Amino acid sequence: MPSTLNRRRLLQGVGASALGAIGASVGAQSFGFVPNQRYPDPAVYILDPSFAKYRIYSSTVEQLGSGMRWAEGPAYFPDTGTLILSDIPNNRLMKYEEKTGRFSVHKEGVNYANGNACDRQGRLISCEHSVTRRVVRTEKNGQITVLADRFEGKRLNAPNDVVVKSDDSIWFTDPLFGINGEWEGSRATPEQATTNVYRIGRDGQITAVITDLVNPNGLAFSPDEKKLYVVEWKGTPHRSVWSFDVSADGHTLSNKTKLIDAAGPGALDGFRVDRDGNLWCGWGFSGAFAPEASDIGGGMQAHLPLGKSEEMDGVKVFNAQGKPIGFIRLPERCANLAFGGPKRNRLYMASSHSLYALYVETHGAV
């Protein structure tokens, strides 16, 4: 019988080999992630006792696939048990299959798709982040239906994240990221005067419901859909989550209130809400650096970072009042999330180069 040390090395080797095979299927190598061998997972932190009930004692963070350049926009499809997510710089959609554990390229040449969502009919809604700069729906037969590409006769900026409300209306953010440079698309001049949040009604009518946020990013509804939460990327001055009351007819918003301020070097991106109203937020270091240079040796001076990625990258959980209650530390910065699995209790985390997952004791709100 092998010793504990040898058994652990064996498990590490098997894990690395399996992940290497997954990475090979998408043309890249994995990063050799090894799950924690101990329960509870020391990567899951309880910031407030109220979070303890959401941590499953015998559940650990898993790496399901790797080899992406910037993972974004996961969307879960319960009919097929699959997760679709974006690899923006590589201009492709990836797919994870729960039954087989296979991680592969779903579709190439997707106009730098960013956020994705599954609508009430099980169809894929995607934000084409650049080039076409539109929101599209992939029909069950594979055909593409354009839902929005212009507002008031002018092209959209760079559709980013998207959610589908229970009345089948589609809400999406439209910052500038996809046209700011050549990494996540192609540089272009914006035509819209502001960076807005839009609503597409069932009749196809497009309405700008928020026009005063600087580069709105992730968005989600509260479980009862009486509130809409939106991340503002810049302008407050830190990244923030704003809360809006949704009108009874579901068409307009009011009572803008700051719910969460990332403060300092913290970076919010996408997020999802669970059935208890908690916000599970992609979190990490913003990349902010000191205004004054410091000596780093060799006759060089550099503007040092104001934070440490290894301490900040992961998922930060806030309750409905905006209080931080939990943190899941990851080896990469998490951009966006989705609840999936047959019970909607598996948290999928799209994180830089990789896709991670963790079973939690709650369900996604939708």
UniProtKB/TrEMBL annotation:
Every copy of the SMP-30/Gluconolactonase/LRE-like region domain together lies at 70-353
Q: Where does substrate bind?
A: 160, 184
What are the names of the required cofactors?
Zn(2+)
Return one GO MF term: metal ion binding
Q: Does the keyword Protein biosynthesis apply?
A: no
Classification via PANTHER family: LACTONASE DRP35, LIPOPROTEIN-RELATED
Fetch the Pfam families from UniProt.
SGL (PF08450)
How is the cofactor bound here?
Binds 1 divalent metal cation per subunit.
The active site of this protein is located at 269 (proton donor/acceptor)
In terms of superkingdom, the source organism counts as Bacteria
Please provide the record's keywords in A-Z order: Hydrolase, Metal-binding, Zinc
UniProt source species: Comamonas aquatica DA1877
Ligand binding (a divalent metal cation) = 72, 217, 269
Keyword flag Hydrolase: yes
Q: What is the lineage of its organism?
A: Bacteria, Pseudomonadati, Pseudomonadota, Betaproteobacteria, Burkholderiales
Protein name, UniProt field:
Gluconolactonase
